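agent> step 3/5: call structure_predict on target 'Hsp90 co-chaperone Cdc37' (Sinocyclocheilus grahami).
agent> reason: downstream docking stage needs a structural representation; sequence fetched in step 2, passing through unchanged.
tool.input:
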Amino acid sequence: VMTTIDYSVWDHIEVSDDEDEIHPNIDTPSLFRWRHQARVERMEVFMKKGEELEKSLMESRRKLAEAQRRVQELVSASTPEAKADLAKAQEEEKQLKKQERSWEKKLQEHRIEEKKMPWNVDTLSKEGFSKSVVNVKPEKEEETEEEKEEKHKTFVEKYEKQIKHFGMLRRWDDSQKYLSDYPHLVCEETANYLVIMCIDLEVEEKHALMEQVAHQTIVMQFILELSKSLKVDPRGCFRQFFAKIKTADQQYQDAFNDELESFKERVRGRAKIRIEKALKEYEEEERQKRMGPGGLDPVEVYESLPAEMQKCFDDKDIQMLQDAISRMDPTEAKHHMKRCIESGLWVPNARADEEGEKDKEEGDEPQYEEVKKEEQRLE
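tool.output (status=ok):
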């Protein structure tokens, strides 16, 4: 008996929209494509090797047949020359038989290796997977990026709540029932939204929830890959995926788990990049806010000052600062003073300007008109 799920419990879940400026079809499919491309290339090399072995075996058999034909022609030979040719042809036949056995062995080993290879979303989705092909999709022109973007935006606006519900399911039966109730969710737009949702959750440090949605993302991705392989509408083949995955076939389950773990790693990497980017942007914004009148960052200027000058600022001691400057080389002192003014570390004439501000909090930075006098002396 199938359990009834109360999907309303997930209504409070919110997904940030900070990816809206980036078209989802530019960013999200790459999470699958990066690893998929490497695997496809490895499979192509492996299959090419198999083809070359088959060609070598066929060529070996052709040469063997030719040698056997020559032996047949010379078998009734009576002249010494013909007998010599026969012996030569028989030796060649013997060598070619060895070659044939060698190629057969190599090809057999290659086929055994192929059977041992772990299943993946490509090998699982071959025509042999299922004979019940329905709703054959007609070939259609490739959509433009603008059309894909508009399609995604419209779809999400309409079905966002349902996609979130699907993202929170776990049991195969629950997922199949939900897609049976809402078959329009079986599409690329759902997969793209789920990927963005995973990245958002990881950025928000909701790691367990991310892993939950990642599971459903791979469910959708497997269905879509199966659809492409069979050239059928995904709505017509999602039941085939669940039928296979629920039989507890170990190879199929291992392939699914392998894809899932790889995807979660990609999500973590993408989230880390986004966090680092956001942090960098925040730090730059804060730096811009701190900029002094001369366009210098007071933090950077403070850190570049000699230790004795830093102590003056820490203690807010004007006399100590004047003494420190007087002991320094005039050129170096002038350089540091100029940078302090341009960064806003001190405002030389500010004391006179702020005489009227009686309620100014204690502990604010001291004013340095005396230091301005020192600067003029050095000039």
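agent> step 4/5: record observation. The CA atoms of residues 127 and 230 lie 6 Å apart.
agent> proceeding.
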